[in-house]
Amino acid sequence: MNRRDFLKAGALALASAPAAVVADAAGKVPEFARGAVELPPTISDFEYVSNPALKGKFASFFIDDAIWFLRDLARQRPKSLFDNAFLKPLKECHDKYGLKLQINLFYRTDFYYGMDEFSLAEVPDAYKAEWQANKDWLKLGFHSLQEFPDYPWLNANYADIVKLFNRIKGEIVRFAGEGVFTCALVPHWCPMSEEGCRAMKDLGIKIMECTVGPRYRYDGVRSRLPYGHAMRIEQNRKPETAFYWRDSRNAEISASACSYNHISEAQAAATGLSLKSVLDKRTGMRFKHLFCDAPCLNLVDVPTLKSDTAKVLGRDHLCFSDHEQYFFPDYLAYQPDYAEKIRVMSQMMQDNGYRFIFIEELV
Fold this sequence. Notes:
By secondary structure, the chain is an alpha/beta fold. The chain has helices at residues 3-13, 68-76, 87-97, 128-133, 158-176, 194-202, 229-234, 265-271, 302-312, 338-351, and strands spanning 38-39, 46-49, 58-66, 101-106, 138-144, 184-185, 207-209, 211-212, 215-216, 242-245, 255-258, 262-263, 277-280, 286-288, 317-323, 355-356.
């Protein structure tokens, strides 16, 4: 029995009370789940909503963790935005296959990679006219201050969100102009506190990525989560912060933290590969699980990308994702086929009758 099935079985077996996870038929309990207590869903007052103007099959694409391509742009000063090595294949896929995407930005580079510091404040406004001319297919979005720590928004305070959001958006508007910033949000590592969700709604975000599945009370047993993530739960802990199991190609983070932007499996099934999202009446935010069955490109090779995408063709909405750092040769996990995978994905969407839309167009 895998971990997700184990947690489901435990919850069903003790449905009459808060369900402590118990041993499976073989008497074995995964260490991360031992004694875990299931919690009710965070989003309980909701409705399913969609954009009535959308008719047909649509695809979306976003790239997370981005800052290095802007550092190259600022230091190399190419004649055009699309002479930049990272942006060039994206423009080619737009021109040939109709690709649209949003790139989600860090405010600054991280010390993890050394003291070659760079921030959005250093991006020149010399390319503003080009950003404006291409905002019909290329947008920029909020992600985080920097790459580390993990789970930066897990227990976020309202004021902290507002401060950094305005800093990032302000720089994007300065160097790229109005209309380039997207109102769809993929938070770094995804989980965000209720205060954070409320702040984002007040700041103009209309739809947000979320996590999915049964959620379990964190009880101070730090071995439940990898990489010291349990301490991320403990620091400034909010009452909605918990943990869950996710079906990930990266098995090391299958046991993960979650916060307010978390929907049930039933809510995910009703919205996942459709044009619908979950409207939370408590915060006014729409939630949609974007890391769904469409591949995250940096987790697959080209053959797997093709086979995994083929399995979900025909669904109303497919959302693909990627992460910037895998494009760069000096990154520890560099992928030389980075651009090729974007091309393959874009062509598959065109060949199968999909039209690219921004995530915000779901609203």
